[in-house]
Amino acid sequence: MERLFWDVDPATVELDAHADYVMERVMTRGTLEAMRWLRGTYSVAQLADYLRRRGDRIPPRDRAYWHLVAGLPLVLEPSGATPPWNR
Q1: Where would I find the H helices in the chain?
Q2: I need a labelling partner for 14 at 20 to 30 A (CA). Which of 23, 26, 50, 58 fits?
Q3: 64-84 pLDDT, tens per residue?
């Protein structure tokens, strides 16, 4: 997990005070193990609250996964690409 916080001293990260920072890092760069840790560290309500407020900072694929985890409706955004079978 410490590798996710390369830009700070991991010992100074406080899970409550820096929750948004921790959630964003793990949601966007975390391994499966880190994602499991995040799900065990923060409640579904906390994850959902973060996604409502700051979810636009998460890439669409990762955001879709975390919306499912948090029990939020999945909002599909147009990708701008035409599928090969529709060309």
Answers
A1: 19-29, 32-41, 44-54, 60-70
A2: 58
A3: 999 999 999 987 766 666 656
